[in-house]
Design goal:
This protein has 301 residues and is an all-alpha fold. 61% of the residues lie in helices and 3% in strands. A two-stranded antiparallel sheet has the order 1-2. The radius of gyration is 20 Å and the shape is globular.
Length: 301
């Protein structure tokens, strides 16, 4: 079952019949931004105390979040349009103003670029601030994916193979039909893989990993590079069962997300190698990659 609007959730819980145009996905995304902003502000204060960031930098976090979020919203739509050119050319207005169809990588790319420009204009060191925001980026992603799941915005997987389902796993964690989803797609039983749930769980776990990997001895943006590595690796795994169009990338048939994920993994790994100043964190990093790999064992092949 999907809940395109907040009142759909309340009506299901309370047995009411309220009708208010408050989109569930939008409300959850706002909540994700607020939560991530609060965590980033807390981390910025900690880094100020040890001299990694100028005093009062945390006061700029709200403006940084607003600018990055607005740019990210535009980028998410742009990347989705680039991924579906035929649909855009057939009906540009519907594609631009649709309530569904946002690319997380488009949001990440545009948001980071806008944030870097903002920080440079305010004279704030970019690399330490990227480290301060890295755990929050993962946390915001985890919360945001809950919005995708609740609203049924099309970010689900391919048709589920029930023959592969472990006996101990509930059916709803393996296959869902997303009845009443916001994009109006009828999904036949038994349903599709609920990939937003998988990504949300992975996001919360990896947020914990990034929080544990915070270090005062590593050169920035060490933690942000770890974030890129883990985020790219996680998305590569889930793309195995996601519904996305493939494109020809120099002879390789990959989805847009797969191609970007590969770049993120490479960039993140190179960044970690260049910023890691000691060997003590290597076991933790290897453990983090192991956690993602273990989570992939729960993703059907």
């Amino acid at each position: 079952m999907s809940f395109p609007y907040i009142t759909d959730i309340l009506n299901a819980l309370l047995g009411t019949h309220w009708v208010l145009p408050l989109p569930t996905f939008g409300i959850v995304v706002v909540a994700a931004i607020v939560i991530a902003t609060g965590v980033t502000r807390r981390e910025a204060k900690r880094m100020e105390a040890r001299g990694a960031l100028p005093r009062l930098t945390h006061l700029l976090v709200g403006d940084l979040a607003l600018i990055s979020s607005m740019a990210g919203l535009v980028g998410a739509r742009v990347f989705h349009i680039v991924d579906h050119p035929a649909a855009f050319l057939a009906d540009p207005a519907a594609m631009i103003f649709s309530r569904a169809g946002f690319s997380i990588y488009g949001g990440l790319c545009f948001g980071v670029v806008a944030g870097v420009v903002f920080l440079r204009r305010r004279g704030v060191p970019v690399a330490p601030m990227l480290d301060a925001a890295a755990p929050s980026c993962m946390l915001g992603y985890a919360v945001g994916r809950l919005g995708c799941q609740l609203a049924g915005d099309g970010d689900w997987g391919v048709a589920a193979d029930m023959a592969l389902k472990p006996g101990w796993l509930p059916d709803w964690l393996w296959a869902q039909t997303y009845d009443g989803n916001i994009v109006g797609v009828a999904i036949p039983a038994p349903g599709v893989y609920p990939t937003p749930i998988y990504e949300s769980v992975a996001g919360f776990v990896l947020f914990g990993v990034l929080w544990a990997l915070r270090s005062d001895t590593q050169r920035p943006p060490f933690l942000f590079c770890v974030y890129l590595l883990l985020a790219g690796f996680e998305r590569l795994l889930v793309e195995k069962i996601r519904v996305n169009p493939e494109h020809d990338w120099l002879g390789a048939h990959l989805t847009q997300a797969e191609a970007i994920s590969i770049l993120l993994v490479v960039a993140g790994l190179l960044g970690v190698l260049m910023t890691l100043t000691g060997r003590r964190l290597w076991p933790r990093i290897l453990l983090a990659v192991g956690v993602v790999t273990a989570l992939s064992a729960c993703v059907p092949l």
